UniProtKB/TrEMBL annotation:
The keyword Cell cycle applies. Residues 55-217 form the AAA+ ATPase domain. It comes from Natrinema ejinorense. Gene3D superfamilies: 1.10.8.60, P-loop containing nucleotide triphosphate hydrolases, Winged helix-like DNA-binding domain superfamily/Winged helix DNA-binding domain. Belongs to the CDC6/cdc18 family. This is ORC1-type DNA replication protein.
C-alpha cells in the first residue's frame, strides 16, 4: 500500500514495462530495425557524399503505409549527420510532415525553424507573418551560415499544395541561392503514381534515385514486434499474441504501424480488463480498434458529400458482400438516397466521380476499368479496400451521415 493509502489509482503498471517502445513516433535503435538492411545500405549509398560535405543525391521513396519509409529516412539521416561530424563536416537534417505543413510557406518555415540556431545566425524565424520569399531568404542565410550540408525529409510529399518547394530546394545550388551549403532532398510518398503528376523539371531533379519499399511479410512483422516485446513486463505476453497480430497485419498489406498498434492496443485492453496477461483473443479486438483509428485518420477533414459517397459504397458492400465492385451509377443512386435523408442537395454525377477518384487516391477504395462488351462500352467499378463495417461505424460515429 502506498504512503497516502489511496488505492483508487494504480501506481504500478502490471502490463507495460516500457510502453514508449510501442508509441508511433518512437524511433527504434539500430538493432530494432528489422528486415530493411538492403534498403538502408542503398539509402546510405545515395546520401554518402553528404559526409564529405558534397551534394547528396535527391531521392524519392515509395511504398505502402507502414513499410518503414519514414523510419529508414530518419535513421539514415541521423547517421549521416553523425558520421559527417566525425569528418568535421557540419551537417543536419530537417523533417517535414507535409500532411501537416501542406503549403509551401509552412514547409519552408518548418525547415528554417528546425535548422536555425539563432545564437549563431542572428536570424529569427517566426511561426507566421512573413512572406514565402522572406522565409526562403532566411532559410538560405541559415543554411550558408551554419552548415556544409543538410538533408531535408519531406514525408507524405504528395500532400503538398504544389511542387514549388521541391523546385526551390532541389535547384537551390544551381540557381545561386546558396553559396556553400549543399542540400539533399528525401521525398517520401505512399502514392506510386505521385511522380506522374510532377512537373518534368522537378521530376528530373527530385527523382535522381528512387526506392520502392515492399510490404513486410508475416515473418518480418513478427520479428518487428518481437524486437519490441520488452515494452511488456516479463511473462505478460502470451506466446500466441505476436504471431496472431503478425498474421492479421500481413493479411492486409504488411503494415508495421498497424502491427505495432495492434500490440499496443492488445496491452491496453488487457489493462482495462484487469487481465494479468495479454491474451490472443484481445488481438482481434485490438485489430478492430487499429482499423477504426486508421480510417478515422484517413477521412479526417473530408467534406460531408465525400462521406456520403463512401457511405453509399459501404451500404452496397454490406448488402451485396459477394460482389467485388460497384458501378458509379449504382453508387450514385444510393448516394442520392442518402442526400435525401440528410436533406442535402446531391452533387452532380461528375462531382461524385471525382470524389470517388479522390478516395481511390487515398487507398480507401480501388477502381477497376471493365469492358461491358460492344453494346455497353467500358465502365469503372469501385471496391472498398477498408472493411465496410469499419467505414460505416466511423461515419456514423463521426456524426455527419
Ligand atoms: N523494419 C522495421 N523495424 C522496426 N520497426 C519498424 C520497421 N518498419 C516500420 N517500423 C515501425 O512501424 C511504424 C511505421 O513505420 P514508418 O512510419 O516508417 O512507415 P511509413 O512507411 O513511413 O508509413 P507512412 O507512409 O504511413 O508514413 C513506426 O512506428 C516504425 O517505427
Amino acid at each position: 500500500m502506498s504512503s497516502s493509502g489511496d488505492d483508487l489509482f494504480t501506481r504500478d503498471d502490471p502490463i507495460f514495462e516500457n510502453k514508449e517502445l510501442l508509441e508511433i513516433n518512437h524511433l527504434p535503435a539500430e538493432g530494432r530495425i528489422v528486415g530493411r538492411d538492403d534498403e538502408i545500405s542503398e539509402l546510405a549509398n545515395a546520401v554518402n557524399p553528404a559526409i564529405f560535405g558534397q551534394s547528396p543525391s535527391n531521392l524519392l521513396i515509395y511504398g505502402k503505409t507502414g513499410t518503414g519509409k519514414s523510419l529508414c529516412a530518419k535513421y539514415i539521416s541521423e547517421r549521416a549527420v553523425r558520421v559527417a561530424g566525425d569528418e568535421e563536416i557540419t551537417a543536419a537534417f530537417a523533417y517535414v510532415d507535409c500532411a501537416q505543413d501542406n503549403t509551401e510557406t509552412q514547409a519552408v518555415q518548418t525547415i528554417a525553424h528546425t535548422l536555425n540556431e539563432p545564437s549563431v545566425t542572428d536570424v529569427r524565424i517566426p511561426d507566421k507573418g512573413l512572406s514565402t520569399s522572406t522565409y526562403y531568404k532566411r532559410l538560405w542565410t541559415v543554411l550558408d551560415s551554419q552548415y556544409d550540408v543538410v538533408l531535408v525529409i519531406l514525408d507524405e510529399v504528395d500532400k503538398l499544395d504544389d511542387d514549388d518547394i521541391l523546385m526551390q530546394l532541389s535547384r537551390a545550388g544551381e540557381a545561386g541561392k546558396l553559396e556553400s551549403c549543399k542540400i539533399g532532398v528525401i521525398g517520401i510518398s505512399n502514392k506510386i503514381k505521385y511522380k506522374d503528376r510532377l512537373d518534368e523539371r522537378v521530376k528530373s531533379s527530385l527523382c535522381e534515385r528512387e526506392f520502392v519499399f515492399p510490404p513486410y511479410d508475416a515473418n518480418q512483422l513478427r520479428d518487428i514486434m518481437q524486437a519490441r516485446s520488452d515494452a511488456f513486463k516479463d511473462g505478460v505476453l502470451e506466446p500466441s499474441v505476436i504471431p496472431r497480430a503478425a498474421a492479421l497485419a500481413a493479411r492486409e498489406h504488411g503494415d508495421a504501424r498497424k502491427a505495432i498498434d495492434i500490440l499496443r492496443y492488445a496491452g491496453e485492453i488487457a489493462q482495462s480488463k484487469g487481465s494479468e496477461t495479454v491474451r490472443e483473443d484481445f488481438v482481434v479486438q485490438a485489430r478492430e480498434r487499429a482499423e477504426t483509428d486508421r480510417f478515422r485518420e484517413l477521412i479526417r477533414g473530408s467534406t460531408p458529400h465525400s462521406r456520403y459517397v463512401l457511405q453509399a459504397l459501404a451500404v452496397l458492400s454490406l448488402n451485396a458482400a459477394e460482389e467485388d465492385g460497384f458501378r458509379t451509377t449504382k453508387i450514385y443512386d444510393v448516394y442520392e438516397e442518402i442526400c435525401r435523408q440528410e436533406s442535402s442537395d446531391p452533387l452532380s454525377l461528375r462531382r461524385v466521380r471525382d470524389l470517388l477518384k479522390e478516395h481511390a487516391f487515398l487507398d480507401i477504395l480501388e477502381q477497376t476499368r471493365r469492358s461491358g462488351g460492344s453494346a455497353e462500352g467500358s465502365y469503372t467499378e469501385h471496391q472498398l479496400l477498408e472493411d465496410p463495417e469499419v467505414v460505416r461505424t466511423v461515419l456514423v460515429e463521426t456524426g455527419d451521415p
